[in-house]
Amino acid sequence: MTDDLKLNMDAYLPLRDVVFHTLREAILKEDLKPGERLMEQQLALKLGVSRTPIREAIRMLEQEGLAITVPRKGAEVAHMTLKDMEDVLQIREALEDLAVRIACQKINDEQIQKLRDSAIKFEKLAASGDVKRLAECDVEFHDVVYEAADNPKLMALLNNLREQLYRYRVEYLKNPEVYPVLIKEHEEIVQALAEHNVEMATGYIHVHVANQEVAVKEIIERQNQ
């Protein structure tokens, strides 16, 4: 276990969420590596907290697919697998297609402007290479589309899936070579929605998800070699 693990305190979050964000960041930065044990007592001592928020944070990590509990062994950092990635992105593609179809009919000028602002923000952030902020901005972009669909039940499904997607989104964004592609895809999606062109918008969304799948598949294959 890394010696650099420190609690990232936030006065506005419950302790379990602070522990969760600290561990999640450590996993995504690979300070905690796939297969590494997440021992409650050891983590509690290192972070200066009790075992209860550690246990709760590990459950949250399991919900995101970042940790798994192995029988008779305990919790450990999950390996990324092609099957898990394909399953998650397959569901995402279907739900995003539905969200875009509905949004094409309902989206208003204010939401189109929010999409444009988010796309511009992403382009500006790309120069910084700040993967965490880029991931947050990409989430923000898609959230505007979901908001425009105005379907709370669909939004709930997408929000739940977003947690499982986070690791793959971050891995994708670690490669600066994909930034120009993402910027172009965001622009195309905004334009199609602004024109209320369902066929074009859904086509762009499918390409958007497919490009991520190809890139992350290559990453997983390299890691498993």
From TrEMBL:
InterPro entries found in the cross-reference section: GntR_C, TF_FadR/GntR_C, Tscrpt_reg_HTH_GntR, WH-like_DNA-bd_sf, WH_DNA-bd_sf
Database matches in Gene3D superfamilies: GntR ligand-binding domain-like, Winged helix-like DNA-binding domain superfamily/Winged helix DNA-binding domain
SMART domains: FCD (SM00895), HTH_GNTR (SM00345)
Alphabetical UniProt keywords: DNA-binding, Transcription, Transcription regulation
GO molecular function, one term: DNA binding
Keyword Membrane: no
Keyword Nucleotide-binding attributed: no
Annotated ranges, domain HTH gntR-type: 13-80
Top-level taxonomic group: Bacteria
Protein's name in the database: GntR family transcriptional regulator
Species of origin: Agathobacter ruminis
